[in-house]
Design goal:
Number of helices: 13
Number of domains: 2
Shape: globular
Largest sheet: 7 strands, mixed
CATH architecture of the largest domain: 3-Layer(aba) Sandwich
Structural class: alpha/beta
Oligomer: single chain
Number of strands: 15
Strand content: 15-25%
Length: 394
């Protein structure tokens, strides 16, 4: 490693000075991920090219079977994106204009956007500061205040499951359906059960930044309910149940066979990649604790029995200046998410104000995602941690 520490005297006070040899550590390194499996990916693409079955081909059906087995549900239905998966789930559950859907404001836009897309009204609930997920202590109060809530969308943010056991008890009492936003959480577990198997419908994204990422957009829905599975399969092709027969009004949201073929190759490596992410996360926690920096690394809750670290998100003071400093040192970072959804202009009509969800707003001002992908080395992590320490000692 090229990190050098020295001792200096400033103003009669002994201080540590750290000189960091510059390197480049991207937040995401897909070139390094794809390089070892390039021949497999190319062979899969050529196979689809030769088959000429580019839409809902054999690889799509096989991917659905493999994802269902991986998640632990009897049914999986592929679609064009994670955003479409959320909308399809709401349509399949017959969520109507005037209905309300409970979710959190600290998440990617598609979570609440899909609710508005089907004509329903998002109802926001604050997050737990430690997990970034829905605060289950506030759900009962929210449901009492909003009797028109017909579905709840908990978000398994950054690869850690929401407290689904607590939520299921609250939802079941009122007959409310739970749609899991598991876009960032494939393989994640809550008390030993996989994300996507814990609600009525699970929704996944295969956007390239995900732990299982495609070569473009893609999504998947999972369910234990055969009737819902049949409806979802129809809704993704304009509600079609037979040749030119349409029982519902759906959308065009079919997964390209090329995407399915590539995802099937990458699925074989997913658990190994997840293991590396978990090792990297543990390395970050240990090094940051040893350095004594003021940042707070994520620590899984007891019910999060398998966290997959789609992102490793720290919290700390002076976030924006820290990010700029890390950029100068060649470290890629990202802020997920700088503006909570209740403060987005397009949701102004909902009537929320700054201060309504203090945990979400505080997180938005503090969070910073560090490189945790499987291609990051322990030396890279040491470099990042030393850079963080150096910033706070200046």
């Amino acid at each position: 490693m090229a990190i050098v520490g020295s001792l200096v005297i400033r103003g009669g006070v002994q201080q540590n000075e750290v000189v960091i040899d510059h390197r480049q550590i991207p937040l995401l390194d897909l070139a390094s991920q794809h390089s070892p499996i390039r021949d497999e990916l190319l062979a899969a693409i050529v196979r689809v090219l030769d088959s000429q079955k580019f839409i809902l081909g054999e690889d799509v059906a096989r991917l659905e079977q493999e994802i269902a087995a991986y998640v632990g549900t009897p049914h999986a239905i592929a679609c064009a994106s994670g955003s479409d998966a959320l909308s399809l789930a709401l349509w399949a559950l017959d969520i109507q204009p005037g209905d309300e859907v409970l979710t959190t404001p600290f998440t990617f836009f598609a979570t609440a956007g899909s609710i508005s897309r089907v004509g329903a009204r998002p109802v926001f609930l604050d997050i737990e500061p430690a997990t970034f997920n829905m605060d289950m202590n506030r759900v009962e109060e929210a449901l009492q205040a909003h009797p028109r809530v017909r579905a709840i969308i908990p978000v398994h943010l950054f690869g850690g499951c929401a407290d689904m056991n607590s939520l299921a008890i609250l939802a079941e009492k009122r007959g409310i359906s739970i749609i899991e936003d598991a876009a960032q959480a494939i393989g994640s577990e809550c008390t030993g059960k996989r994300a996507g198997s814990l609600g009525v419908i699970g929704c996944f994204s295969f956007y390239p930044t995900k732990n299982l990422g495609g070569l473009g957009d893609g999504g998947m829905l999972t369910t234990h309910d055969g009737g819902l599975a049949a409806r979802l399969k129809a809704l993704r092709i304009h509600g079609q149940t037979g040749p030119y027969l349409h029982d519902w009004i759906g959308i065009n949201s079919r997964l390209d066979t090329l995407q399915a073929a590539a995802l099937r190759v990458k699925l074989k490596y997913l658990d190994n990649w997840t293991g590396r992410r978990q090792e990297n996360a543990g390395c970050y926690r240990k090094m940051l604790a040893t350095a004594g920096s003021p940042v707070l690394p994520p620590v899984p809750a007891p019910y999060q029995t398998r966290h997959i670290y789609n992102q490793f998100v720290i919290r700390g003071p002076d976030r924006d200046r820290l990010r700029e400093f890390l950029k100068e040192q060649g470290v890629g970072t990202e802020v997920y998410y700088p503006v909570p959804l209740h403060l987005q202009r397009c949701f102004a009509h909902l009537g929320y104000q700054r201060g309504d969800f203090p945990a979400s707003e505080k997180a938005a001002s503090e969070v910073l995602a560090l490189p945790v992908n499987p291609e990051v080395s322990f030396d890279d992590i040491a470099y990042v941690c030393q850079a963080i320490t150096s910033f706070y000692r200046r």
